[in-house]
Amino acid sequence: MSGELLRVENLCKAFPLGGGFLEGKKRWLKAVDRVSLHLEKGETLGLVGESGSGKSTVGNLILRLLDADSGSVRFEGVDVTRLKGAELTRARARMQVVFQDPQSSLDPRMTVGNIVSLPLKILGLAKGGELRERAAASLAEVGLGPECLDRYPHEFSGGQRQRIGLARALVADPAFVVMDEPTSALDVSVQAQILNLMGDLQARRGHAYLFISHDLTVVRHVSRRIAVMYLGAIVETAPTEKLFETPGHPYTRALLASVPVPDPAQRRNLARLTGDVPSPVDLPPGCRFHPRCPEAMPCCASVEPPRVELSPGHMAVCHLHNQRNTP
Amino acid sequence: MRILAYIIKRVLAAIPVLIGVSVLTFIISHAIPGDPARIIVGPKASKEAVETIRREHGLDRPLPVQYVRYMKGLVQGDLGQSIRNHRPVTKDLADFFPATLELTLASLVLCLAVGIPLGILAAVRRNRLADHVARVFSVIGVSTPVFWLGLMLLLLFYRNLGWLPGSGRVDITSSPPAAVTGLYVIDAVLARDWALLREVLSHLILPAFCLSYVYLAVITRIVRSSMIAVLGQDYITTAKANGLSTARVIFKHAFKNSLIPTVTIAGLSLGELLGGAILTETIFAWPGMGKYVVDSINSLDFPAIMGFTLLASTAYVVINLAVDVLYAFLNPRIRY
Amino acid sequence: MSAPLLDIRDLSVSFRTYQGRAHVLDRACLTVNRGEVMGLVGETGCGKSVLSRAVLRIIPSPPGSIDGGEILFEGRDLLTLPRTDMRRLRGERISMIFQEPMNSLNPVFTVGNQMREVVRAHRKASRSEATDACLEMLAAVRLPEPGSVLRAYPHELSGGMRQRVMIAMALICNPSLLLADEPTTALDVTVQGQILAILAELAERQGLSILFVTHDMGVVAQLCNRVAVMYAGQVVEVADVQSIFARPAHPYTRGLIASIPGRSSGGELYAIPGSVPNPIDPPPGCRFHDRCLKATGDCRNVAPEMIRVVPDHSVACHLFNQDGLS
Amino acid sequence: ADKDTLVVAVSSDIHTLDPGVSSDNYDWRQIYPCYDRLVKYKVENGVGLTEVEPMAAESWAVSEDGLKWTFKIRKGIAFDDGTPLNAEAVRFSLDRTMAIGKGPADNISAIASMTALDEYTLEITLKNPYGPFLQTLATDGASIVNPKVAAKAVGDDKAQAFLAENVDGSGPFRIAEWTRGQRCVLEAKENYWGDKPKLKKVIIRFMSESADRRMALEQGDVDIAENILIDQIPALEKNKDVVVNRFPSQMVEYVYVNCQNEKLKNPAVRQALSYAVDYKGIIDHVLQGNGVQMRGPIPDGMWGHRKDVFQYTLDAAKAKELLKSAGAENLELTLIYSERRATWEQIALVMQANLADIGVKLNLELMANPTLRDKIDKGDFELCLGAWSPDFADPYMFMNFWFDSAKQGLPGNRSFYTNEKVDELVRKAETLSDVEERKKLYSEAQDIIMQDAPYIFLYQIQTIVPLRANVQGYVFNPMLESMYNFESISKK
Amino acid sequence: MAAHPIFRELKLTLRILSHNPSAVIGGAVIAAMVLLAVAAPLVAPYDPVKLSLGERLMPPGAAHFFGTDELGRDIFSRVIYGARISLSIGLLVITVAGVTGALIGATSGYFGGKIDNAIMRLMDVILSFPSLILALALAAAMGPSLVNAILATAFVMIPKFARLVRGEALVVREMPYVAASRVAGAGHGFIIRRHILPNCLNSAIVLATLTLGDAILIAASLSFIGLGAQPPTPEWGAMIASGRKFLMDQWWYATFPGLFILATVIGFNIFGDALRDVLDPRIRR
Ligand SMILES: Nc1ncnc2c1ncn2[C@@H]1O[C@H](COP(=O)(O)OP(=O)(O)OP(=O)(O)O)[C@@H](O)[C@H]1O
Ligand SMILES: Nc1ncnc2c1ncn2[C@@H]1O[C@H](COP(=O)(O)OP(=O)(O)OP(=O)(O)O)[C@@H](O)[C@H]1O
Ligand SMILES: [Mg+2]
Ligand SMILES: [Mg+2]
Ligand code: NI
């Protein structure tokens, strides 16, 4: 491939919870805990995990919507966590984002034309009539006609709005787009349209995607590699097919087993795990999955599991492998 | 315990607000052109007499010095002496505040007793006749000049019909009840003087109605809109789907939720009622803060003005604190 | 065959909007048999929720109004039932759970308060009897520590727990029909799995019929016995679950099935062209015709009738005639 | 109310009950009946006069040079605690008022020293001969206070704190209750040394709205209602149970014309203004006839008043001519006024129209009373509406206060008028005690003043006192505006 | 070229409003008042400031529809001219308070944290004053004039707008479209201007219509205590103030201006209520 675009290393982010004077000790919510991942040019990395596992926070940290507590995000060789002013703007011109909710990710008070051309305007990449032209071009790319330019977002359907969101993300020709659950608010048939469109655009323009989703089937469809998050940490990374065939982490296995397969012939018990995802405020010691893990061992409750490479590109963070590998 | 810590925190947070209020009052009241020393000695007095008084009251000092001196006293619970009558301002406030408070509380009760049912009615019968009638009725209140209403009420109920007594807190020939709280209703009850209680209550009716009518629309509107919002919520549908009766759905499920914004507004209104009582007090010869403060402004009685504003602001802060605590009781989601 | 538990016939519902009257349900037909789980699928806005709410007559009115049809439940037409009878039916014979467990419980009352209230709305029970019933039901939905759940406020519970509470509350009076409007959409997969398992088990144990509304074909495949597919306010296809996946008849259903990702990995997904018609001004004839690749002249002018293709498989499409041939 | 209880509805609460502090008629209303003074105003045939007669003083004598006054004090007067009212008590009281140094002190500031010659004889020495001296002893500030109050003093406040809320006098009444903002109850003393009060109780009820007072009067809840707005009087007069009394008062209303202002320096301009005002229109319409046009500065009823002094009347043509001669065309002036009197706004508007007729644009500016006073004191105005009532019955209250250039500003000379000749005349008159002599000097001054037109003399008002028909014995004294002779009032 | 999108929005809003009976009634009242104000010289039969002492306090009749005041001025004419003053006062107050309040609120809500805390405490200070007293003291300090009365009234109303807009801004700043702009490199000023303010506009407009009545009333109370419009300006509040002295015997004097205030305030209130419903995007869709 054409080389590395993004490398995230040991990224951490904790949010303070309440706290302050007269309220006792400040508590921290560890939303992202030592996350590392990397992305090649033109590649799609899937990031899955249940809600609250910190997927969006990772995306936001990369985009500098949030400032990281520690760790680094090297984008095209530059550490964006430390950038300021004009340099940050320059880096931003190369990164974009598409959000989950097509309703709230478009400013209801702006026309579609203005929305789509906004990045160009802010970055100073175009002016006046050119803004409109390039917005129209970008809209055409996502399959919307120029008549949309003067309409307001609420006049469109969910799928169309998501296309507008894509057009906005792509108008400044970024190298990298964070897709934060871009289809989870859409119907399957519309989702199919959007997924196809994304694939198309990627093939033509060579962007890299960080595709965040909680839907394994979708991630499986779009990504070459997948990272699985649980309670703020990545528990497994693997090439897509590897992950589905030989999931290395018990959580991944449970996750896969819980997905309702759209085939009445393959009915199975979906209740693999008990309980909900616990809150990331007071993380359990040892392996963060052990309270729900069907395969937990005594050591899981106290010792942090190591990161084990199961095969090239297939990483899991679990004691099970540790034992297997070191008898 | 958490709630106690919360209250302490809120009280502490109120201090800068009160300091801000005192600074602002101080600046504004001293910006009113005029010479208080002159007002004390009377217009015909000589310049020397004026100078003496000015020195005596420290009015010749620079403003910041005067302010610091005032605040020093304040910390010790001393609001200074009224320039007009040489009485401690605290005494004056103690004399006049209970009347205003009684009137205000009575109005609030009236306001809620009428406004809430009206708001519910309007919400439940949204966009139907009852809704329009309820809203117009309440909005007439906001837009009716208070003294017009007050005088008309007096004319009708006192002069023409003779159903209710005239102005004042008690009949002209009656003595007020022995002062315990200063709230005559309570004092009359404490004294077990039921005839007097009747008298006091009948004197309260007109001014309380007059004052509350102004805020009726505010309450009605907020109850209506929060009720409409609540009625659209999923849990209301759930309650209906579970076979609960309409009355239960409205009065139990919807009402408690719609109370949450209502208490906030009611708290704010109570604050405004306190300040808005001036005109009502004048018309009904109600011996409250209203006339006192207008007179204070007119005679540049700075300590009295400061005392009043600080008291009113404190009342406002206390009310808001009470509202917040109430809010926490109503809304279990609130965490401190 | 015995009469179905629920028989919705030609139900039409419309809403008044600022743009005009929206015909959200147009002569929709559906049956639910005793003891079966009936899936109802379709795209956003096609009228699934309206249909299920119409059964309980809890459509907000105004702006909504039921314009025609009948809803026969155990042989009685719910639409003509007196108000009080209808109220008694709700929660007791037919109950409902909703998509958002977050908003479906009243935030200012404890779970116990709300659950007991439901019990006592339908039968004479003392407070402690009601509490016992609640505890039993909470245990049945496998909530750990039912006692503390009862004392908790909704916000103190997680999404999955809340949804279980909702189920417990819906089933506490032992209804014969449960309307489940996307009860797992807001939940994580692992939790969704738990909820679906509970529903399946309870349906079996209590002989409960469920009308399960969803847009997730995977859930349908895992849970339902029969499936009805809705499109733009009409039921366009009804069949047993195997047939729907194996032999979808309506072009819309076929598109729907084909656009599910993950049935095979990689490659283009099938995407139905165009978008859903506007319910204020729906197209004449078959409502799907302008997105249908096989549309004929008839489709543009004549609304297709529901016809049985094979036993247990009906479809409303001109491509099929009475003999069930394509 | 009962026959022996009189209820008076008044517009304003009491500020202080201390006779040594208050310069407010509304306070005096309560203070006056609770104390005795050396002298009191005469009453003849139910009419209150401005001359004085003995009260606590049996008799008095004055030295040739007018400096030494010797008062013989009536024996047998006692305060409530039995302390006798004697020379020492009088000395103490007058001394106290002067030492406090507020408004009331000004009236008796002529006193240089006092000595008790014996227990019931007091000699007062004046700084200089002072014509109005005897009159000043009838003012509220000269009330005789029980010297025992000295014990109630806090620090060196001379018992101000105590006397602000209590009375300790030998007068016919005492304060039985004062509920702030509501009412003050006076109780008659059984053992008063003079004529016994016929009433047992007087309730003074504070009601700030005129309409409220009027309603209470009509309903019979109160017996006397003061300060009823002029425009409500005609309707009140139709009520058979109510008698509306009108009395010529000493209260005058006039316009200060700032003589130091560039635009108004020229007497011709001031004369023009005086010619421009429609006096009759104002009196007939705004006052509804309850007033008479002033004639010179001294009001009718006060000695020194001249019926023959020059008088301005509406003459627009003449006014225009004067302006033209003064080269003051296109004049634009501002009239300031406050809300102190209900009629002022109307008068301001009428004047605005009047001045417009002679080509003067008049802007009106309403302001709060303290602000207005401040502006007057500083001379920061052009025209200003004002009212004046004398504290004691002497033309000094008008001639010296209004025109002596030493009293410029708020104290009295509010038009900042300076005329050396006038200064000389009025200062001379001040020191003489011979009334005829003084009349002559004041008369001469008046002629000059009317030509200089430092004020626009509007009118002398009538005091209107509506009473219930069964109230008897009310006497109005122009020097006791807002005060009542409770001791001689009774109810039928 | 197609009509500008703003006009389409406006047209839609108007269409929706025209289906709302209370909006129509409220709007009609407002329109009638505005029309009267604009056409005052044509409608008013007399000069509103011309005195005619001989015709004092005449009851309503053929010559004077609403009677005359204590200086013989025609009350009908004064009420009509008064519409100009009172409506402009209301509008000015709301504009000043609305714009200032919205800016303060948007800034406060957008930045949050310490800035927000400081600003909101300041607003608390103003709010915790009894508003009439504050306005009174302010007007007394600045001197009585119409402009000062307007400023004083606006000042006490600022916190209302600031609080409302801040609340909205807190929501808007969390919206994904704001994040999208930030990803594209937008600065604070840009976001406040282009996202926060426009999205708070609806509720600010609703509040404005609802409080316009309040503004007229507060300004009227200021006139009422003599701190607002200076005579002979025919302002409704001032007219009522003068008329109150005559209320018992000459009811018409204060009543007619009172009725006009009543109608205007009700008009704005009803209209504002309807506007709130109509601008609600959930209903609008
Ligand atoms: N600004 C914030 N302040 C406090 N806590 C936050 C904040 N943003 C996120 N969190 C918390 O951080 C954790 C991770 O949140 P994040 O939004 O990244 O999860 P996610 O995996 O994207 O979930 P979802 O699938 O629901 O979008 C959650 O527990 C969330 O409550
Ligand atoms: N209260 C209402 N007022 C106006 N229109 C309504 C109302 N409720 C529903 N509708 C309309 O009825 C149509 C069907 O809505 P419904 O909620 O039944 O869809 P759904 O199939 O349940 O969709 P989803 O999958 O999103 O839940 C939609 O077009 C919706 O806009
Ligand atoms: Mg997320
Ligand atoms: Mg739905
Ligand atoms: Ni989903």
From TrEMBL, chain A:
InterPro entries, alphabetized: AAA+_ATPase, ABC_transp_ATP-bind, ABC_transporter-like_ATP-bd, ABC_transporter-like_CS, Oligopep_ABC_C, P-loop_NTPase
Superkingdom as given in the UniProt entry: Bacteria
A GO MF label: ATP binding
GO biological process, one term: peptide transport
Family matches, as CDD domains: ABC_NikE_OppD_transporters
Residue ranges annotated for the ABC transporter domain, each copy included: 6-256
Keywords, alphabetical: ATP-binding, Nucleotide-binding, Transport
Family statement drawn from the similarity comment of this UniProt entry: Belongs to the ABC transporter superfamily.
Annotated protein name in UniProt: Peptide/nickel transport system ATP-binding protein/oligopeptide transport system ATP-binding protein
UniProt organism field: Desulfomicrobium norvegicum (strain DSM 1741 / NCIMB 8310)
TrEMBL record, chain B:
UniProt main location, coarse: membrane
Segments traversing the membrane: 12-32, 103-124, 136-158, 200-218, 258-284, 304-330
Subcellular location: Cell membrane
Any one GO molecular-function label of the UniProt entry: dipeptide transmembrane transporter activity
Keywords annotated in UniProt: Cell membrane, Membrane, Transmembrane, Transmembrane helix, Transport
Pfam family of the protein (one): BPD_transp_1_N
Family matches, as PROSITE patterns: ABC_TM1 (PS50928)
Residue intervals of the ABC transmembrane type-1 domain: 97-327
Official protein name in the record: Peptide/nickel transport system permease protein
Biological source species: Desulfomicrobium norvegicum (strain DSM 1741 / NCIMB 8310) (Desulfovibrio baculatus (strain Norway 4))
TrEMBL record, chain C:
Keywords: ATP-binding, Cell inner membrane, Cell membrane, Membrane, Nucleotide-binding, Translocase, Transport
Ranges of residues in domain ABC transporter: 8-257
Single GO BP term: peptide transport
Any one annotated GO CC term: plasma membrane
Chain segments annotated as transmembrane: none
Mode of membrane association: Peripheral membrane protein
Main location: membrane
InterPro entries per record: AAA+_ATPase, ABC_Ni/Peptide_Import, ABC_transporter-like_ATP-bd, ABC_transporter-like_CS, Oligopep_ABC_C, P-loop_NTPase
Keyword Acetylation set for record: no
Cellular localisation: Cell inner membrane
Gene Ontology terms for molecular function: ATP binding; ATP hydrolysis activity
Family: Belongs to the ABC transporter superfamily.
Identification of the protein by name: Peptide/nickel transport system ATP-binding protein/oligopeptide transport system ATP-binding protein
From TrEMBL, chain E:
Gene Ontology MF terms in the entry: dipeptide transmembrane transporter activity
GO cellular component: plasma membrane
Designated name of the protein: Peptide/nickel transport system permease protein
Keywords of this entry: Cell membrane, Membrane, Transmembrane, Transmembrane helix, Transport
CDD domains the UniProt entry points to: TM_PBP2 (cd06261)
Family: Belongs to the binding-protein-dependent transport system permease family.
Membrane topology type: Multi-pass membrane protein
Transmembrane segments: 21-44, 85-111, 132-155, 175-192, 204-230, 250-275
Cell compartment(s), UniProt: Cell membrane
Domain ABC transmembrane type-1: 83-272
